[in-house]
Write a structure and sequence with these properties.
It is a single chain. The protein is of the alpha/beta class. The protein has a single domain, classed as Rossmann fold (3-Layer(aba) Sandwich). It has six helices and seven strands; from the N terminus they run ααβαββββαβαβα. The chain has a seven-stranded mixed sheet, with helices on both faces. About 35% of the residues are buried.
């Protein structure tokens, strides 16, 4: 755990505000996209492209394509301005990702599960960005669009006791 996550003082947006962010988003750039199906960024990309109307752009300087989709080396080389930058990068990389996000003019910085950087959040908000940290776009999208069962979360079991025959 980094020093930044030891004492969390920044308050993230409410569920209602996260829903508004997702409803207002049309384009998402996934920074740290991976071609490895075991990586969270791969699964989020597949989910968003198959179950949403978002235009998803993938960003990774070491990959040219993922499953036939072009991957861009940087945010500045995208074919347009993303509404949201969804980040799958190490904690120490987050300040430079924020700089790139500000430079391209995105309106939301979304840090995936496990990512928390209070200085980055403050800087982003001061620059007028919406900020979400330590939350998964896929899970939030599924939650607000009634699709948690599609993501494997709604098992139909209401209590902790296992039903016979399962």
């Amino acid at each position: 755990m980094s020093a930044d996550t030891a004492q969390r003082t920044w308050q993230g947006p409410s569920a209602a505000r996260r829903r508004e962010i997702l409803l207002g988003t049309r384009t998402i750039a996934i920074v740290g996209a991976s071609a490895n199906p075991a990586r969270a960024s791969y699964f989020v990309n597949r989910y968003l492209t198959s179950t949403s109307d978002y235009t998803v752009w993938l960003v990774n300087p070491t990959i040219d394509e993922i499953d036939g989709t072009p991957v861009y080396p940087s945010l500045s080389e995208l074919p347009g301005v993303p509404d949201m930058v969804d980040v799958f990068r190490r904690h120490d990389d987050l300040p430079s990702v924020l700089d790139d996000t500000l430079a391209v003019g995105a309106s939301t910085l979304w840090l995936q599960l496990g990512l928390w950087h209070e200085d980055v959040a403050r800087r982003a908000e001061e620059a007028g960005l919406s900020v979400v940290m330590d939350r998964c776009v896929k899970i939030e999208h599924a939650r607000f669009h009634g699709g948690l069962h599609l993501a494997g979360f709604d098992t139909g079991v209401i209590d902790s006791r296992r039903r016979s025959g399962l």
